[in-house]
Structure prediction request, 97 residues.
Amino acid sequence: MDFSLRGRTGDDGDAREKLFRKSLMENARAFSFRLDARELDDFSTHYRLLSAWNSRMNLTASTDPVWAARELYLYSLFPEKYVLHFPGTWLDVGAGG
Prediction:
């Protein structure tokens, strides 16, 4: 199965993935996160799969690279900055449908 972004909607998948990675790195710095190369690769792989599958079944409202980097990936990491300072058991009940 082809998980590339090319041909998904007529746009260049490589350019979308580069924009996603760039946005992820820039926004991570703004949130005071450090993402290593492996984390960046893992997020990019997940984004590529999400974009490919979103065209088949509606998994998310948007796969815009800039929006996805911020809203789908970095915002979900933000609580980690605070949770690590409070030991115990945590439950993420989420806000999705």
